[in-house]
Amino acid sequence: MVNTPSSPEQPLTRRQLKQRQGDSIAAPPAVVALEERPVPSAPAPPKPSLGKRILSWGTMIATPLLFIGVSLPVNIFYGQADMTPAIAGALGEDEVVTAQSFTVAGSQSTQVGIQRQSWSVTSFADVLKARYGSRSFSYSTTGTGSIRWPFPTAVPISSGYGDRVAPCRYCSSDHRGVDFVPGNGAPIFAIADGVVTAAEFGGGYGQYVYLEHDINGRSVLTVYAHMQRGSSPLRVGDVVEVGDFIGLVGNTGISTGPHLHFEVRIEGEYVDPFAWLKENAF
Prior knowledge:
Glucose Permease (Domain IIA), 12 strands
C-alpha cells in the first residue's frame, strides 16, 4: 500500500472567517454552577422560667394593692366598738374618753388677724431736712475784733456744714464748709491776720484763696471759694491783716449760684465754720 502525502490545509475564505467569528460570539460563556449552602437561622430566645413568670405576675398584682393600702385610713378596718375599748384600756378604766373637735374660721374672721400696719417711705432729702432743717444760722457781728466774720454785717446762709442733699450733679453731699449768700459781687474780708498760701483759679472751687493763721497757738486754715474770676488781688506769700479785702462773691467752679464757700481747718482737720465763728468771732 502506498502512502500518499497529505495535502496541505486550504486557506479559509473571507466568508468562512466571518462565519467562524460569528459562531464564537454567539456561543454563551460557560456558566460555573455555585454550590448552594443553607443560611443558618438565629437561635430562638429561651423561654422564661416558671419562677420568673410567677414573679412578674406577682409584681403586677402587688403594685395596685400597695397603692390602695397606703391610701386608706387605718380605722377603716375597725369598727367603733373595736377601737373604743383599746383606747380606754390605754388611758385607764376610770378615765373618760372625750372627742376632740375643731372649728375652721370663716374668711371674715380670718381677715381680722391679717390687718397690715400702714407705712410710708421717707426720702433721704426728708431725712436730712428733719435732721438739719431746724438748725438756726442767725448770728450777729460788730465787724471788729481780732477774729471776725467774712462780712461786716450778718448775711444769709444757704447751706451749713455736714450732710446734705447735693444741690447739683457734681456738688458734695458731705459739705465741708458753710455757704454765705450776701449777693453777687459783695466784698469778702479776711477773718484774721494771716499769710496767703494759695490764690488760684480752677477746679471745683473756681477762684479761691487759702489763708494760714496762727490763732491761740494753733494752725488755722481758712478757705474762700467761688469768688469772681480775677477779683482777688492776693498772691501766694502775701501777708494780710484782719479785715483786708480778699475778693468778690461769685459763681465760679462747681456752684449753683453766687455765694461764698467758707471753710475752717484746724491742724488739718475740718471743723464747722459756723460754730467756730460763733464761738470766736466778734
